[in-house]
Amino acid sequence: MRKKLLVICGLFALVGTIAVAAVLGIAGVGKAASKNTCTQPTGQPPDCLTVKVFPGQLTAGAGHQGLIVAKFINQGSATATHTVIKVTLPHQGDPSAADNVTAVSVSPQALCSPLFGPPVQAAIITCSFGNVAGGGTAKVSIAFTTTVAKGLKLLGETIEATLTYAEGNDNNGSPTNDSFNAFGGNDISLVDGTSLGGDCASSNVNGPLISTSKDGQFTYVDSLTSFLTDLACTPIAAGTLTNPPNLTCGGTHKCTTPLSFAILPTTGQATLYIPVSSLANGTKAAGPNKFTLYWFPEGGIVGTPLMTCAETLDKATPPDTDTCIVSQTDTKIGKDQYIKDVLKIFGVGTSLADSGFAG
Is the CB of residue 49 less than 8 Å from the CB of residue 3? Predict the structure, then answer.
């Protein structure tokens, strides 16, 4: 599993996509059975239960969705019976104020309540999974909307998952009941949808899934080639940021364009419109034939030049990036000259793949 997480200008304090593969569960169970179904050392979270919210930044307002994923992995060899996961929706600190978050869909819907049919405002969603064999998994995902205003946060610590199950018998032959709690560690920031955007999509729509701009540069998530069918929706995020002063393109010169980023869990297409005026010489001579777009890895300040998808046989550009360039052309919007880069980003189902771009 490649982990390429962009950490520039405190970006991941906002986006919050660190260590999500195990929660989304796209990569499978991933841990062999041990003696106990679940253990919890003093002061530590349980080893069998996680709960997270995605994406870490969500566009404020109607029509935009976030995603909560709670996952139980039976760490032992014995079957956990009567397995139930209850998820408390996030809020701003007061549990009685949970009406600022509304669950709109859940997966698996047939096993969960009270969400049947139209959206239901409920602080807790309860899902009954019955028997979960040793090494097996139970997972619930909840798509939600919120009326929390931009600039504010939903607190990750207010998202609670409660796991209950029965395993084995006591001396009287009755099932031994166990209960564990886990809390979401990451907050979700409500953003304006202008320079930063986030959503949870269930299908492609006419026009970009996310559209952002800053300092004259535009960043779009155009489409996804597939959606995470085992989740209530597919979380994505994107944005355009002011270029950090220590960001270098190729290690030889300071990047002069704004910094774009796109975060996808599946393969998708993104488009950048980069203003020629932001380039080093600010002239048309720095058009698509001379412009080089650079990709930035986790914590990196030195970019790697991207190659075309034709050059890489429609695979991610080496070394160890997750993007190739579909096309790079010179274009105009009004009187302004832009370099248009259409990108293929390979989010291949092992993590929320992210990409940062500047030139």
Answer: no
Beta strand 57-59 pairing with 188-191: parallel
Which structure tokens are listed for 2? 């490649």
Express each pLDDT in 329-344 by its tens digit. Answer: 999 988 889 999 999 9
Whole-angstrom Cα distance, residue 48 to residue 137? 9
Counting beta carbons within 10 angstroms of the beta carbon of residue 207, is it exposed (0 to 12), middle (13 to 18) or buried (19 or more)?
exposed
For residues 133 and 319, what is the distance between their CA atoms, to the nearest angstrom? 40
- Find, among 339, 229, 236, the residue nearest to 279 by Cα: 339
- Render pLDDT for 14-27 as a digit per residue (tens, 0 to 9): 444 433 444 565 44
Q: Which domains does the chain have, with CATH numbers?
A: 11-31+45-190 (2.60.40.290), 201-358 (no CATH)
Helix (H) / strand (E) containing 22: helix 21-24
Q: Cα dist. 255→169, 247, 291, 292 in Å?
A: 64, 6, 12, 10
Alpha-carbon 169 to chain mean position: 40
Cβ atoms of 81 and 130 closer than 8 Å:
yes
- Return d(Cα 131, Cα 138) in angstroms, integer: 9
